Amino acid sequence: MATKLIIEGNAVYEIDEECLECQKRRARNQNQKGYQEWGKENQQNKPMRHSP
């Protein structure tokens, strides 16, 4: 397990880097999923073009 200690004044923080990376991956997946859903909604709401 990869951990990082951060000492800030009298406070000590232990960061679990594996957990942090997992959270970042989940956030990227959520952002990508949201972007894909946004794209679908915009394509459905586009006015149709008529050729002359």
Number of strands: 2
Unreliable stretches (pLDDT < 50, length at least 5) are none
Task: List the secondary-structure elements in sequence, H or E.
Answer: EEH
Strand order of the largest sheet: 1-2
In a few lines, what is going on in this structure?
The protein has 52 residues and is an alpha+beta fold. It has one helix and two strands.
Q: Could you characterize what this model shows?
A:
By secondary structure, this protein is α+β, with helices and mostly antiparallel strands. Helices cover 56% and strands 23% of the residues. It has one helix and two strands; from the N terminus they run E-E-H. The relative contact order is 0.11.
Question: How would you describe this structure in keywords?
Answer:
2 strands, 52 residues, two-stranded antiparallel sheet, elongated, 56% helix, alpha+beta
Question: How are the SSEs ordered, and which strands pair?
Answer:
Blueprint: E1 3-8, E2 11-16, H1 17-45
Antiparallel strand pairs: 1-2
